[in-house]
Write a structure and sequence with these properties.
Helix content is about 35%, strand content about 25%. It is of the alpha/beta class. It folds into 2 domains: about 170 residues, 3-Layer(aba) Sandwich (Carbamate kinase); about 140 residues, VC0802-like (2-Layer Sandwich). The strands form 5 sheets. An 8-stranded mixed sheet has the order 3-6-2-1-9-11-12-10, sandwiched between helices. It has a 4-stranded antiparallel sheet with strand order 13-18-20-19, with helices on both faces. A 4-stranded antiparallel sheet has the order 15-16-14-17, covered by helices on one side. A hairpin with a 2-residue loop joins strand 19 and strand 20. The longest helix is centred in the first third of the chain and has 16 residues. The two termini are about 35 Å apart. The structure holds adenosine-5'-diphosphate (ADP), aspartic acid and magnesium ion. Adenosine-5'-diphosphate (ADP) binds next to loops.
């Protein structure tokens, strides 16, 4: 008998019919003798619908109230799934994040899990019930409801699996595993049998939304066996593994990630003196805006240009701060755009192969795609380009690195 945590995403619980199908699937695992904790998302589209309601009132709603509201999406699906399970003769009970409790910090809309009290879940499992837990939500130490960021139900599932020392955490979704790149953009993408935590972490942080990045972080840290599977099709899915014994035979590149969520800001003609980077980027960080890529260039006239990227949702705020800084330090001009995309190639195989980056640049040059920024790490190369070339870039890199099915 194993203890399994199963997470079903928005499309998998998107209608009453699907919820009943999920219940039947869960029941099958119970009947095989396993203990099952199920984590569910809100019905597909519901989170966006709720966010839209508040935005009709104001563009800057209170983040506490937004979390209060948006957490209701998951409260509906946990109850519906528990009802569906009971109808099928399976004892079940649902819990919100507050009831478990899943304790987080107080950063509304992007809270981090601090601790999970697993005792209530265990008690219900021990009397034979399926425990259904709301994804995406928690409660801070003062009792306020928080949410974990978009896609956060993945993280709830992995964190519960870690707390319960579950035998496996299964992420059920609308694709049958992790692919070399988003199969909706590149139809020739291939499903991976397995991928290392390290690679999955890069893929997730560089934009592959199949798993939330914190979920992968948690799974790696607490050694939770993690698998991505299709909700309604049979198959082994993709296993996220700790290390890769066969890395010798691995392709150099395991996957291609991309993101449209970036924005680029540039400040030109900055006096090149010690401390300017701190003045410019420090004021952005102080506003709790995460900076991704940074490029600095010094010109002959002893001025310097900085270009950096932030999440597009932070663009307006970052621009306002940058304009203030520019007038304080006497910079020549400030510019920016949200019409950019980031494309990244990821693979542990890069460590043992030279020339991977230039192969990437070559493939993009062949398509006449201009590269605006570059950044590299041990197992990834990222480029920023004009958003309109995103799909062409991903497709041509997929072919160039021999990933096409
Ligand atoms: P859920 O609602 O189940 O959490 P998501 O929409 O969050 O589902 O994640 C699944 C989606 O992730 C897929 O439909 C697919 O379009 C997208 N995706 C992006 N990159 C990948 C990838 N490398 N492999 C598989 N799916 C990916
Ligand atoms: N419902 C939340 C969202 O849409 C959390 C999740 O689905 O994982 O982001
Ligand atoms: Mg998701």
């Amino acid at each position: 008998m194993a203890l399994i945590v199963q997470k079903f995403g928005g499309t998998s619980v998107g209608s009453i019919e699907r919820i009943e199908q999920v219940a039947a699937k869960v029941r099958k695992f119970r009947e095989e003798g396993h203990q099952v904790v199920v984590v569910v998302s809100a019905m597909s589209g519901e989170t966006n619908r709720l966010l839209g309601l508040a935005k009709q009132i104001t563009s800057k709603p209170s983040l506490r109230e937004m979390d209060m509201m948006v957490s209701t999406g998951e409260q509906v699906t946990i109850a519906l799934l528990a009802i569906a399970l009971m109808k099928q003769g399976m004892p079940a009970i649902s819990f919100t994040g507050t009831q478990v409790p899943i304790v987080t910090d107080s950063s509304y809309s992007k809270a981090r899990i601090l601790s999970i009290d697993e005792s209530k879940i265990r008690t219900e499992l021990d009397v034979g019930k399926v425990v259904v837990v709301a994804g995406f939500q928690g409660v801070d130490e003062q009792g306020h409801i928080t949410t974990l960021g978009r896609g956060g139900s993945d993280t709830t599932a992995v964190a519960i699996a870690a707390a319960l020392k579950a035998d496996e955490c299964q992420i059920y979704t609308d694709v049958d595993g992790v692919y070399t790149t988003d199969p909706r953009v590149v139809p020739k993408a291939k499903r991976l049998e397995k991928i290392t935590f390290e690679e999955m972490l890069e893929m997730a942080s560089l934009g592959s939304k199949v798993l939330q990045i914190r979920a992968v972080e948690f799974a790696g840290k607490y050694n939770v066996p993690l698998r991505v599977l299709h909700s309604f099709q049979e198959g082994a899915g993709t296993l996220i593994t700790l290390d890769d014994e066969e890395s010798m035979e691995q392709p150099i590149i395991s996957g291609i990630a991309f993101s449209r969520d970036e924005a680029k800001l540039t400040i030109r003609g900055v006096p090149d003196t010690p401390g300017v980077a701190y003045k410019i980027l420090g004021s952005i960080s102080d506003a709790n805006i995460e900076i991704d890529m940074i490029v600095q260039n010094v010109a002959k006239d002893h001025t310097t240009d900085f270009t950096f990227t932030v999440n597009h949702l932070d663009y307006d705020k970052a621009m306002e701060i940058l304009q203030n800084t520019a007038s304080q330090i006497g910079a020549r001009e400030v510019a920016g755009t949200t019409n950019i995309a980031k494309v990244s190639i990821v693979g542990v195989g890069m460590r043992s192969h030279a020339g991977v980056a230039s192969q990437m640049f070559g493939a993009l040059a062949k398509e006449n795609i201009n590269i605006q920024m570059i950044s590299t790490s041990e197992i990834k190369v990222s480029v920023v380009l004009d958003e309109k070339y995103l799909e062409l870039a991903v497709r041509s890199l997929h072919t160039a690195f021999g990933l096409d099915a």
